[in-house]
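hiii so um. not sure if this is the right channel but i have a protein structure encoded as tokens and i wanna go backwards to a sequence. like what aa goes where. can anyone help
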């Protein structure tokens, strides 16, 4: 069975975005971006894959993305209706009833049941959970792995890594990647 992988960036103080969903304050130096392109190129939006000249590189980690409406919204704001055209795209939303693009499926019901069905599919590649916090909280029982990119910055306030009730869930740290810039990538698997 394939896994649900929460691949997400956060500040030192645990925020995945600013109070108004800002992400432009996350520093992305060359060494770190080179690593992201080479190791997690599947998780980059299609325009970033083109910029990095990896748009023709075969998928190696993910073939499906699940994201919340707020994660999808910035693409819509600039007229992009299929931001991850190289992946099967699912948007979980209680307010969006119709998809603006035939390549994007809206999940209006139970995201847990939808993700369980995606995980049960016959595929060698995993499902990428792109966020946000409320969706990650709802899907916490289904998250098999977390790849947390910790940026060397403190936000002070913003969107937390998870938004859920008290739900202690053990994960085991399996790998740590460090960069001279202060970036750290923590790889966790469900204990």
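sure thing!! here u go:
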């Amino acid at each position: 069975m394939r896994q649900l992988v929460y691949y997400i960036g956060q500040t030192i103080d645990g925020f995945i975005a600013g109070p108004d969903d800002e992400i432009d304050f996350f520093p992305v130096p060359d060494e770190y971006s080179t690593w992201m392109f080479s190791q997690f190129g599947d998780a980059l939006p299609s325009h970033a894959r083109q910029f990095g000249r990896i748009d023709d590189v075969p998928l190696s980690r993910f073939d499906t993305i699940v994201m919340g409406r707020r994660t999808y919204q910035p693409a819509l704001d600039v007229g992009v209706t299929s931001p991850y055209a190289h992946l099967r795209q699912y948007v979980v939303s209680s307010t969006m009833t119709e998809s603006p693009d035939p390549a994007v499926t809206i999940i209006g019901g139970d995201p847990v049941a939808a993700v369980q069905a995606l995980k049960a599919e016959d595929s060698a590649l995993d499902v990428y959970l792109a966020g946000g916090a409320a969706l990650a909280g709802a899907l916490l029982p289904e998250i098999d792995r977390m790849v947390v990119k910790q940026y060397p910055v403190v936000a002070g306030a913003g969107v937390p890594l998870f938004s859920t009730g008290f739900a202690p869930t053990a994960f085991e740290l399996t790998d740590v990647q460090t960069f001279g810039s202060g970036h750290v990538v923590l790889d966790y698997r469900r204990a």
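oh and The mean pLDDT is 96.
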